[in-house]
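Note to self: the last two entries modelled the partners one at a time, which told us nothing about the interface. This time every component goes in together.
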Amino acid sequence: MTQSFRLESGGLINRDKKISFKFNGKNYFGYEGDTLASALIANGVHLIGRSFKYHRPRGFFGAGVDEPYAIVQLYRNGETEPNIKATEQELFEGLEAKSVNCWPSVNFDVGAINNFLKIFLPAGFYYKTFMWPKSFWYKIYEPFIRRAAGLGTASIKHDKERYEHKYEYCDLLITGSGPSGLASAYSAAKNGAKVILAEDKSRFGGTLLTSEVNIGNQSGKEWADSIISELKEMPNVTVKNRSQVFGYYDHNMLVMSERISDHLPKTKKFHPKQRLWYIRAKEVLISSGSIERPIVFGNNDTPGVMLSSAAKEYLKVYGVLVGKKPLVFTNNDSGYETAIEFKKNGIDPIILDTRKEPQSEIIEEAKNMNINIKNSYVVVAAQGYKKVKSADVAKISDNKEELGSIENIECDCICVSGFWTPTIHLASQSGNKTKFNEDIDAFVPGISKQNEKTLGAANGIYTLEETLKDSFEKGNLLSKKITNNENKISFPNVVEKKSTVHDKFWCVPLPKGKNYKRFLDFQNDVAVSDIEIALKEGYRSIEHVKRYTTLGMATDQGKTSNLNGLQLVSKIENKVVPAVGHTTFRPPYSPVSIGAIVGREVGKHSKPTRKSPMHSWHEKNNAVFVDAGVWLRPRYYKRGEENLFEASKREARNVRTNVGVCDVTTLGKIDIKGPDAAELLNRVYTNAWLKLPVGKARYGVMLREDGIVMDDGTTTRISENHYHMTTTTAQAANVLSHLEYYLQLVWPELNVNVVSTTEQWAGAAIAGPKSREVLKKLFPKSDVSNEGLPFMGYMEADLFGVKAKIFRISFSGELAYEVNVESDNGYFMWEKIIEAGEEFGIQPYGTEALSTLRIEMGHVAGSELDGRTIPHDNSLEGLLSKKKDFIGKRSLSRKAFVAEDRQKIVGVVPLDKKTSIPEGSHLVKDSNAPLPNPKLGYISASCWSVEHDNPFSLAILKDGKNMIGKKLFVMSPLKNKVIPVEIVSSHYVDPKGERVRS
Amino acid sequence: MLHIKCPHCGMRSQNEFSYGGDATVKRPELGKEISDQDWDNFVYNRKSLRGKHWELWQHLSGCRQWIKVQRDTATHEIFKTLKANEEIS
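The predicted structure of the combined assembly is written out below.
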């Protein structure tokens, strides 16, 4: 296939390297350096998709980030991505793209019938029409609308690509490498400042690539190239292309997305696809330029109507003609530059200028080139359906309200220029109070809130000389302030053609008897008539008009439509534009992939995985792991064909009859030292701590100030001023912060230090009637008898040359010990325990058996201490000291906390002794009561009691202490279960606690 | 993301800190009689100020010190940071 719209020569593409690609299943080729858009236009393809609402044909409107139309579904290396702008996507070998929002094909689209029904689809149509009957919304209306009005399809596959995050600090961040960006970066870099220069596109230079200017006897592009290559050599400068600064956040932090691999057929090994930069900049220079805005006229969305600057860019950068019979419709001199480029390449354009008798150097040049110029002329409507075939044009009166007789001019593209809108998004996001500049009919940055300055066209400065002067100076001044260095740069000689003022004309009136759609927002199909309806219906605030009509709400966020929308509202409302105000600019400036935002925090990488030193032993012994906070813990050790239920029962039973060992490394451990350590414990725990002897452990409960139980655990007095505190796995970090809070802020007079030692100790719980026998073998030199190491006793001992701490504490309710060694010796300890316990039938047990053992004992854990219960609810009131004050004590006398029928922990057994009770189920009196059935309590934890061989649960039940022996129902609507149960004591096994003391 | 000057470590990003609420609240002394109303005010009742506000932050992923930060709740401007033992002036 020949590229009939590609020039013989010219452009910045590499004509030596052909690249083949596919669009809608058809093969084409382009050149290295093309975008998908430029390559398609070169191949004469102008129909890209269908519009969002009316399914009207869509072509290309721009040549970059502002593109509202050319959105495609991209296929790359077996993956697909929706909503890719063809104008931004660089061409790579094997690229494949498809149209979106059309069915069955872009050429024949069934949804286009909406175009003929459009009088029935005005603004707010969905709100008005699909309200009745109510039930139709979910089943009929919404699915249909969603299918009809989609923009591409997100992949549901796991994304194999890698995305990275990077944190960076700099003196100056400069956003955009046009003339202002280059000049400011250069002078700042020369002063030794740490500079980051970010360019959204693949090529540096911005408008210098397309404008006919001369800087220091070089063309704009040559000057840009020389500055960039010099900057790249400087160690204090980071120059990034394909990098868009899309968000300006608090305290001068900006976020930039760098597209590292999107332009390649495949991501290189060890490379990320995209990288998100969090940049904290001392100063920010916004050099984001401006975007040409359209003039509104009839059928202005027809493929072939595009921005005149885009037509020029396709010509100068890609050597591509957007048409061979161009019509240039302009209200300023920019359109002339485009026409001149056409003329230079042998194409005869016609210029329609809304101005009466404009005069400037550029216009003079066009005249000298014999370009056909029609003054006081406008395009009334574009004609043609899938591509512009001609234009209805007319003379317009001086007051711009009366149209002359309509003439028809044959053309294949209409290049529109309605002057320039500064890109103030970043400035506005930073909190800058923008102001309206009458001279350019647009908003520009005003008073800064953060350390930001806007340069050049983004600041409404449209001449090169002024832009460069201002930018050199700002770069110099700001960097000098930071580095105290000054390296004066001599200002280059600038040659540019002078232009004259633009015409404040933006919308062509409708001719009599015609009802052309005149679009403001091209992606969301918002026409002049839609805004008119919204205002007629009483919408006044521009934010409301936006939401009602969806003006500026598409993926392009109204880059080409917002200002014309404001002009229209202000005209109808008879207000000036600044009185209408603009809608809020929010990040991101342009869509950012979810992958880039998430970065590497995906799946297992979303948080660190902590493993105990014995982890590899568990792996080797068929442990099935479970996530316990950030820890991986063995849930059970699988033997043969066992399932979870069978294995955990076996493990728990073995603890009750023989001996088991459980990895308890994950328990939080806090080392507490200092002369006031006992006093601290006495204040944070509810029970008394001042008289705990050295070498003894005690169980304690700590509350929040509101009286709710925060955590429980044992703390051991290692020596006079040294304690070892344990916390639950989940609360370890919170408890440490809690202690630090009181020590640093509330009681700084206490002389105590706290530090986390969770990871310094490996722990193993040895539990069961034969555990002492195992201990004797492990510590032959120590007296571990009931007298030598009584319940809640502590000793230090020697484990075959390794220093160990033995705590006689029990969570399982059996005779039990916890042995701690330094983490590095954890594996050694574990192996020794297994070895010594072999003859006693020792088995490792996981968290499932651990839970079973504690539940049937009635020991509370996280599911009862869930941030909603007070000590009484957990039958822990015996631990509340009456003699001293402690954190949260005062709250316990609140009315609801002392109510007679206060909730309390109970045991629950199904009447049939067979049916397991789902956790989270509710307890009710009458299973047939009308809804809402009054809830008396809830099941906090369930297990299969190995002692009684039937299901057993713990519950928090209203008036629990008077409910023992009562029969209730457990209801689980989730599991669709109703189970008759009996309420029993929460201590289902060994209620007197004899075993732990045996 | 805020940039908070830890009085011990210097300028650090917000993600190293955790928020700790109003820094002007004083915990009633242990063991002292206190009315229900006063206790409720201490535990629950906080003003939601617009403007300058002294608040607590903990430099969790840094020195672990609790610090006092004067921040504008509307603009996020941070005026001053103090160590835990420094009095708010």
